[in-house]
Amino acid sequence: MVDLASLSREELRRWLAEGGRGANEGTVWTWLHRKGGRDPEALRHEGRLSAALLDRMRREGCVGRPAVAWEQRAADGTVKWLLSFADGARVESVFIPDGDRGTLCVSSQVGCALACRFCHTGTQRLSRNLTAGEIVGQVLLARDLLGDHALPAEMPRRLSNVVFMGMGEPLANYESVATAVRTISDRDGIAISRRRITVSTAGVVPAIGRCGRELGVNLGVSLHAPRDELRDRLVPVNRCYPLAELMKACCGYPGLSNSRRILFAYTLLEGVNDGLREARELVQLLDDLPAKVNLIPFNPWPGAPYRPTPPDGVRAFQLELLGAGIAATVRETRGGDIAAACGQLKTEAAARCVP
Fold it and tell me: Which of 62, 122, 126 lies closest to 89, judged by CA?
């Protein structure tokens, strides 16, 4: 059986045409992705597909979704889903509502190989990459659960933004992530603008320029330290691609402007990277680069070797950046009571809670 929802648009076109009759793949694509279709019988009433093709879709195709193994809802409205795929692999996705918009944080790998010291996901060994279909499936499932597929076309959707900031390093699984971005942003389908899609990386430099040229999405960089000696310890991929190479790639990212900046994430760890020295070094590092710094209070997890910076330390660090003309915000912790906050995703912990 072929999972039709997991196919790229070109793959769907080829599959529909295999019977030799041809088909309007746009009709099927819109039904699958915009309408969240599951049963091909619903297409019979549209009268635009042959009975033979519909029979083949029922006989040889299916429309899958990840299985929800577990769901948690936080007091602030954040929802975390533990999702299972056909081979038993599990990842977590998080939906964060915010006024009239909502952001889905999707995973791109099962586990992560980068082993960032402060990240809970980094303590889970990498099992495998997710396929493009498994990434898109997270979005389709969230739209199902949020009721977006059932809304009239003129009404705004609850899920308006997608960030590749869940489990895994997106640029280490570039081909699948790229195909998923193209599917998510297709105007005839889910139609989330690439201006509302952010791909984050811990610093896989060779893929950064390609991401900008081919996908045109927003770029997020998990920075967390302003000098190599410190970043080598916190973000080990820095040993392969040190800051000079990373910043060169960022400066060359296509489409940068004051209205479209790179988002640098900086997790504040008490006594490690949160001093005024680090703040001033960060100012120098980002000089003349269209950038926004998102300061993240560390979200503790069991066995974590770090402590969060106290609020007055966070504020002092932020003021140093603001005083130098760098846009700097403090990320509000969302979903912390269900371990859905930044750096807290790890399926092994969640799996133990599944009945």
Answer: 126
**CB of 95 within 8 A of CB of 78?**
yes
**C-alpha to C-alpha distance for 253 and 219, rounded to whole angstroms:** 8
CA 271 to chain centre: 30
Strand runs (DSSP E) across the chain, as ranges?
Answer: 2-3, 61-62, 67-73, 79-84, 90-98, 101-105, 109-110, 128-129, 161-164, 197-201, 218-222, 262-268, 291-297, 327-330
Q: Report pLDDT digits (tens) over 68-112.
A: 999 999 998 999 999 999 999 999 999 999 988 999 999 999 999
Domain housing 7: 2-62
pLDDT of residue 295: 97
Do residue 199 and residue 345 come from a single domain? yes
Query: Which pTM was predicted?
Result: 0.91
Tell me what pLDDT residue 314 has.
97
Position 181, amino acid: V
- Output the six-digit token pair for 284: 């120098």
CB 134 within 8 A of CB 84: no
Number of separate domains in the chain: 2
Q: Catalytic residues, which ones?
A: 92, 342
Helix, strand, or coil (residue 336): helix
- At 212 the pLDDT is 97
Structure tokens at 329: 């915000």
CB atoms within 10 A of CB 294: 18
- Say which CATH number the domain at 9 has: 1.10.150
- Per-residue confidence band for 134, with pLDDT thresholds at 50, 70 and 90: very high
